[in-house]
Design a protein that fits this description.
Elements: H1 8-29, H2 58-72, H3 111-126, H4 135-154, H5 156-166, H6 168-177, H7 180-187, H8 190-207, H9 229-253, E1 260-264, H10 270-286, E2 292-296, H11 299-307, E3 313-320, H12 327-335, E4 339-348, E5 350-354, E6 363-367, H13 368-381, E7 387-391, E8 417-422, E9 432-436, E10 443-451, E11 464-470, H14 477-487, E12 492-499, E13 507-514, H15 520-529, E14 535-541
Parallel strand pairs: 1-2, 1-3, 6-7, 6-8
Antiparallel strand pairs: 3-10, 4-10, 5-8, 5-9, 11-13, 11-14, 12-13
Length: 542
């Protein structure tokens, strides 16, 4: 997918092909009854494997499982594919691809609206009422139709980018003024929309007819249709075209100035707050739009958001707590084509909250990681506590970072409970601070910022470089590599060994060097080190 993707002729060809897919998918679905039970979260349990999809309809279950399979082969890394359940799909198992940045990063996703309109409006319009027990076949057809409609609606991003580039000043003026009506009016071309509807009507009339050898002798009124073409025309007129324009407006509202930052971790968790604090001043000082934050389930998802141009930067945790650089992060950074362009550090302090005085506390409740960090301090402050209630660390998919008291307040046995909470956590009205945790027991986090940007600027002299080395099997390879930096008087401020998850028995060295990779001294040293090790991967300089 290259720059030609923004040419109007290429966009038109793509939309025409998508019409064919949508029309065939709707004709396939129309052969079955409405089968409303497949859209009901309270459906009979026999429609799902036991224990699966507690709050999902049968359609949700099938759509999610389809997306999970497709995600493993990187379908949703493509800039023209959007999942209905983006927070519930796994990372790709195939090597990830880096797409040319054609589109401006955008976090809009209209799939919830598409699914609701499909179920509530389209199904009753094209399917006979009742239940024909063809539940599996109906849902398989639904999945194909929904994915095709979603792709067509979100292809509006390409349309919007093409139109923006052709009338940059006018669109920029409307975007900065927040004039959605003006943007919509500028996007709308009634003549083009009418041609689309005429083409859809002709295709639906052709694809949907029952073929009979006697067709030539029949009048138009006598030819049997599998689906009334006007239903499909109505879908395009009333839903597909309007939703595509909504997608275009949402894309354009994020087109000027606003950066999108992908990160992983719980909402309102430490990483979330650190990212907000780091990126907020840039837009406040420059009078730019506030950056959008895209919360991801996994670090790989944050990186992929940048690689498929749905975010400008990815923030990935390098160190958290006192356990050093994370092995998973090192193995992830080894394979990404993105460059580290900076780092963010942050910390959080804790306090003990309770409805009773310190000496009356008999139970302690906190996140697992918080308990680990503060265990020595807790033994001194609460030596009499006999019951520890460990709660899991917050799930990234939850709407908010759950406070440690959760739903336990007011429950019998918890009236003498103390809660070890992050100092930024809003205090529940029934609780009060009984003691602040020692300041040295901070939860610390260090993240790296990654981007497509290639640093070709000359070295200023005060930078540092992050790099990875793959140790070879020969004796003394580490000593020879370290000697290179020693002889060239390059200061190595951090060195840590990590298991290579790709090759059993091999190890990767993560190091930080004082100086920029573009400087002659560092560049020559890295070139010499390549002869001592299996590979050298420069992660970036900043």
């Amino acid at each position: 997918m290259g720059p030609k993707a923004l040419e109007l002729s290429a966009i038109r060809d793509a939309l025409i092909r998508q019409e064919d897919t949508i029309i065939f998918a709707l004709i396939e679905r129309a052969q079955y009854a409405q089968n409303g039970v497949v859209y009901d979260p309270a459906r009979p349990e026999r429609l799902l494997p036991r224990g699966q999809g507690k709050n999902d309809s049968f359609l949700d279950f099938m759509l999610l499982e389809t997306e999970r399979l497709h995600a493993r082969v990187r379908r949703y890394t493509s800039p023209d594919e959007y999942a209905f359940f983006p927070q519930r799909i796994p990372a790709p198992e195939l090597p990830t691809l880096s797409f040319e940045p054609i589109l401006h990063p955008c976090v809009a996703n209209l799939n919830e609206r598409i699914k609701a309109l499909y179920i509530q409006k389209l199904i009753p319009a094209m399917c006979r009422s009742g239940d024909d027990a063809q539940h599996g076949s109906s849902v398989v057809a639904d999945v194909a139709a929904l994915q095709a409609i979603s792709k067509r609606v979100h292809y509006g991003f390409f349309v919007a980018e093409s139109k923006f580039l052709s009338q940059k000043e006018e669109y920029t003026r409307l975007i900065r003024a927040g004039d959605d009506d003006g943007i919509m009016a500028l996007l709308t071309n009634a003549a083009v929309e009418e041609r689309v509807l005429r083409r859809v009507r002709k295709k639906a009339s052709t694809f949907g007819r029952e073929i009979d050898l006697g067709d030539d002798a029949m009048s138009e009124g006598e030819i049997s249709m599998r689906l009334d073409p006007e239903v499909i025309v109505g879908l395009y007129r009333d839903y597909v075209i309007p939703l595509t324009k909504v997608a275009e407006v949402q894309y354009l509202r994020q087109r000027v100035d606003a950066a999108v930052i992908a990160f992983h971790g719980p909402a309102r968790g430490l990483v979330h707050r650190v990212v907000e604090r780091h990126f907020a001043p840039s837009h406040q000082l420059q009078d730019n739009a506030a950056p959008g934050l895209l919360r991801c389930a996994e670090p790989a998802e944050a990186l992929q958001a940048v690689m498929n141009n749905k975010a400008h930067h990815a923030v990935v945790i390098l160190e958290q707590g006192d356990s050093g650089v994370q092995n998973a992060a090192i193995n992830l950074l080894r394979d990404t084509p993105l460059q580290v362009i900076g780092e963010i550090k942050g910390s959080a302090t804790f306090r003990l909250l309770s409805p009773v005085p310190l000496q009356s506390v008999t139970r302690l409740r906190a996140r697992r990681e918080t308990l680990r960090l503060c265990q020595s301090w807790l033994r001194r402050v609460l030596p009499h506590v006999v019951d520890l209630d460990e709660m899991p660390d917050a799930d990234v998919r939850t709407a908010d970072d759950a406070p440690p008291w959760g739903t336990t307040l007011g429950v019998a046995g918890h009236e003498r409970t103390a809660y070890l909470a992050d100092s930024d956590t809003q205090i529940h009205p029934e609780l009060s601070v009984i003691v602040d945790v020692a300041d040295e027991l901070k939860e610390r986090v260090r993240c790296v910022i990654l981007s497509h940007l290639k640093d070709t600027a000359p070295a200023a002299g005060n930078e540092k470089t992050l790099a990875l080395f793959g140790l070879s099997d020969g004796a003394g390879s580490l000593a020879r590599a370290l000697d290179v930096f020693s002889r060239r008087r390059i200061n190595m401020t951090h060195l840590q060994s990590h298991a290579d998850l790709q090759e059993e028995g091999r190890y990767i060295l993560f190091c930080e060097l004082q100086g920029h990779a573009n400087s002659q001294t560092i560049a020559d040293a890295l070139e010499e080190v390549r002869g001592c090790v299996n590979f050298v991967r420069v992660l970036g300089s900043f």
